[in-house]
């Protein structure tokens, strides 16, 4: 397990001494999002989708909510921008209770990306990206400039893609447009609900890497939901493992692999290790067969 933890650690940013070091930039310890003893029940308290959750998320951090279906991770994410209201407790964004903020204005200041993307089919790519800026009364020149800037950022040349319709795009391209739309109003917080889950492995790997670079380049504070443990280990600064509505452990990928605090975390951390061992065994077998074939030809 230690070898796998070391491999993960070499490929990702580090949290050092209370400061997030990412791409050579160090952020001061600033709490951007705070959960205070938050619970959510959908059945008047008989059961809890989220139970007594307390969590802080720092400026510049990419935190991943990890767990199986039904563990409460998406409910937790949606309570940040008030798509779901908590039953108990409080949530703060930039030191202010979200319950005291207008939900529409709150959401316009927070980027939100989800698996289905949800592009408007009757609008062009450029019009989709410009939806929120237009709601904020930006003038047409500013909207177009921002649209082209974001298309360049997500590797879609504006001249080729600005005027296309969503049905003319691949799944990966639609996801890129969804990301660009979420960034259009220059939010500092990004919420992502399994954004890469429906993509093929090669496209998913490319977009994961691209988003990590965008997260760092724009100094975002990002919260992402996934049930993919490998994705979480490779992308996150910290991972919050959830199970049955409870937070089981919050730690860096390295610490989760090396020092799981309970049996549930220990068990799920065995999965990527087991998969890595299986891939290594397959690679060794392929190498051995290749060497044998060459020897036979000689």
Sheet-strand content, in percent, reads: 15-25%
Radius of gyration: 21 Å
Distance between the termini: 40 Å
Number of helices: 12
Order of helices and strands: HEEEEEEHEEHEHHHHHEHEHEEHH
* Rough outline: globular
Rounded mean pLDDT score: 87
CATH topology of one domain: Rossmann fold
Helical content (DSSP H or I, runs of 4+): 40-55%
How would you classify the helix and strand content by structural class?
Answer: alpha/beta
Q: Major β-sheet, in short?
A: 6 strands, mixed
Proper CATH architecture of one domain:
3-Layer(aba) Sandwich
Show unreliable segments.
7-22
Strand order of the largest sheet: 9-10-11-6-12-13
List the topology elements.
Elements: H1 2-10, E1 14-16, E2 19-22, E3 25-27, E4 31-40, E5 50-58, E6 62-66, H2 73-80, E7 88-93, E8 96-97, H3 103-108, E9 110-114, H4 125-129, H5 131-135, H6 140-153, H7 158-161, H8 171-183, E10 189-193, H9 201-217, E11 221-226, H10 229-235, E12 238-243, E13 246-251, H11 253-258, H12 263-297
Parallel strand pairs: 6-11, 6-12, 9-10, 10-11
Antiparallel strand pairs: 1-2, 2-3, 4-5, 4-7, 7-8, 12-13
Give your account of this protein's structure:
The chain has twelve helices and 13 strands. By secondary structure, the protein is of the alpha/beta class. The protein has a domain at 2-101 and 222-297: 3-Layer(aba) Sandwich (Rossmann fold). The strands form three sheets. It has a six-stranded mixed beta sheet with strand order 9-10-11-6-12-13, with helices on both faces. Strand 2 and strand 3 form a beta hairpin. Helix 6 packs across helix 8. The radius of gyration is 21 Å and the shape is globular. The model is unreliable at 7-22 (pLDDT under 50).
């Amino acid at each position: 397990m230690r070898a796998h933890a070391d491999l993960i650690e070499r490929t990702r940013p580090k949290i050092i001494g209370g400061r997030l070091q990412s791409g050579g930039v160090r952020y001061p310890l600033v709490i951007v999002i705070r959960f205070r003893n938050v619970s959510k029940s959908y059945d008047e308290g008989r059961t809890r989708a989220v139970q007594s959750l307390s969590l802080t998320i720092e400026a510049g951090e990419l935190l991943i909510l990890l767990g199986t279906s039904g563990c409460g991770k998406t409910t937790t994410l949606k309570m940040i921008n008030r798509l779901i209201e908590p039953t108990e407790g409080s949530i703060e964004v930039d030191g202010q209770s979200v319950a005291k903020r207008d939900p529409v204005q709150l959401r316009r200041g927070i980027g939100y990306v989800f698996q289905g993307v949800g592009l408007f089919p009757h609008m062009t790519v450029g019009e989709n990206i410009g939806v929120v800026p237009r709601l904020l009364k930006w003038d047409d020149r500013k909207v177009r400039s921002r649209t082209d800037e974001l298309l360049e950022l997500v590797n879609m040349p504006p001249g080729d893609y600005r005027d296309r319709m969503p049905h003319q795009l691949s799944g990966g391209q639609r996801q890129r447009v969804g990301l660009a739309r979420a960034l259009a109003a220059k939010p500092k917080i990004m919420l992502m609900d399994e954004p890469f889950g429906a993509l093929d492995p090669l496209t998913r790997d490319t977009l994961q890497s691209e988003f990590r670079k965008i997260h760092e380049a724009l100094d975002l504070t990002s919260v992402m939901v996934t049930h993919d443990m490998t994705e979480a280990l490779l992308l996150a600064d910290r991972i919050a493992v959830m199970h049955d509505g409870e937070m089981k452990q919050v730690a860096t990928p390295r610490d989760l692999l090396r020092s799981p605090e309970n049996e549930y975390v220990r068990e799920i951390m065995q999965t990527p290790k087991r998969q890595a061992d299986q891939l290594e065994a397959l690679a060794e077998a392929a190498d051995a067969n290749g060497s044998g074939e060459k020897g036979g030809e000689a």
